[in-house]
Write a structure and sequence with these properties.
Layout lengths: L1 E7 L8 E4 L5 E6 L2 E6 L13 E3 L3 E3 L6 E3 L16 E2 L1 E4 L2 E6 L4
């Protein structure tokens, strides 16, 4: 496991998302003071989740097919998506945001 530096807390305002170029790409969200990281590709289609619509209760809606996902668990909450998104642990240290990734990805 390693920690991938993404940005500072100030660079990602609450209610915003950022695409992190990695293999695979990761979407980082700032919601209500918490940070969440999930795979950036919708499990239903080829859409960038970081371009989705952040909603109440830490959920995101896919910008293409309106599938919704829980940012805490990655669980698909409605059709057309049925498969979850992979989640990644997020660490905030000294005002910097890191995503914990596996070295084997």
């Amino acid at each position: 496991m390693s920690q991938l530096f993404v940005c500072t807390v100030e660079e990602l305002p609450d209610g915003e998302a950022r695409k992190v170029e990695y293999t695979p790409d990761i979407a980082l969200f700032h919601y209500d003071g918490e940070f969440f990281a999930v795979d950036d590709r919708c499990s239903h289609g080829n859409a960038s989740i970081s371009e989705g619509y952040l909603e109440d209760n830490a959920t995101v809606e896919c910008p293409l097919h309106t599938a919704s996902f829980c940012l805490r668990t990655g669980k698909a909450l409605c059709l057309p998506a049925t498969d979850p998104l992979k989640t990644y642990p997020v660490v905030v240290k000294d005002g910097n945001i890191y995503i914990t990734v596996s070295e084997e990805q």
